[in-house]
Design a protein that fits this description.
The protein is of the alpha/beta class and about 190 residues long. Helices cover about 45% and strands about 15% of the residues. The chain has two domains: about 1-95, no CATH class; about 95-188, 3-Layer(aba) Sandwich (Rossmann fold). It has helices spanning about 15-20, 35-45, 65-75, 80-95, 105-120, 135-145, 160-175, 175-185, and strands spanning about 5-10, 30, 50, 95-100, 125-130, 150-155. The chain has a three-stranded parallel beta sheet with strand order 1-3-2, with helices on one face. A three-stranded parallel beta sheet has the order 4-5-6. Helix 2 packs parallel to helix 4 (about 80-95) and helix 4 (about 80-95) packs across helix 5. The longest helix is centred in the last third of the chain and has 13 residues, at about 135-145. It is globular, with a radius of gyration of 18 Å.
């Protein structure tokens, strides 16, 4: 579980429930992405859930329809308005792990591709299902590469593998895991 900010486009209460059950409830839950709150959460690792597309219990702030997406992200000719500014802040402040997202050709990926060109050293990772077939796999890999996203593939339809990948990542991020990685990299 993350100890800092978490960002989602989902409007359900799954993350709130999961973090509460793990005895790590969020200090704050924010509908939308006010930049002053994002900055504070990222600068000080405040356990805040940012629900970029709103909350199911607050229909006034939902981003669900094409007109709502256009209002938040801009028209087909370009990306504008306040949500992309918040996305830019999120995507350049720290490494990002993307979960539960198909990463198809959408406006969020357009923003990531733009940012990957502007900030090529920023690290982004995604735990994502491997597409079936070599052609689909290589097309998805090329798209993710343009967006600066390193995929961590799991086998098609094996969604329970996500838990294993997350456990492995948490272990590698621990002090002992990092030490073991350094030892293995030195060959000692």
């Amino acid at each position: 579980m993350s100890t800092g900010p978490v960002v989602t486009t989902n409007f359900d209460r799954v993350l709130e429930t999961a973090f509460r059950r793990a005895n790590r409830p969020f200090e704050a839950i924010v509908s939308g992405a006010p930049e002053h709150q994002l900055t504070r959460a990222f600068d000080f690792s405040v356990s805040t859930l940012f629900k970029l597309h709103g909350d199911a219990e607050d229909p006034e702030r939902l981003v669900l329809t094409l007109s709502q997406y256009t209002e938040r992200y801009g028209g087909a000719s370009g990306i504008s308005f306040r949500l992309p500014g918040a996305l830019e802040l999120i995507l350049i402040r720290r490494p990002v792990l993307i979960l539960g997202c198909s990463l198809g050709g959408d406006r969020t990926l357009q923003m990531m591709e733009y940012l990957a060109q502007q900030h090529p050293s920023i690290k982004r990772f995604a735990i994502i299902e491997r597409p079936p077939g070599d052609k689909a796999f290589h097309e998805k890999l090329a798209l993710l590469s343009r967006c600066g996203i390193k995929p961590l593939w799991y086998p098609e339809s094996q969604h329970t593998a996500v838990t294993l990948l997350l456990s492995e990542a948490a272990w590698l991020a621990s002090p002992l895991g990092r030490r073991l990685v350094r030892i293995c990299e030195r060959g000692a």
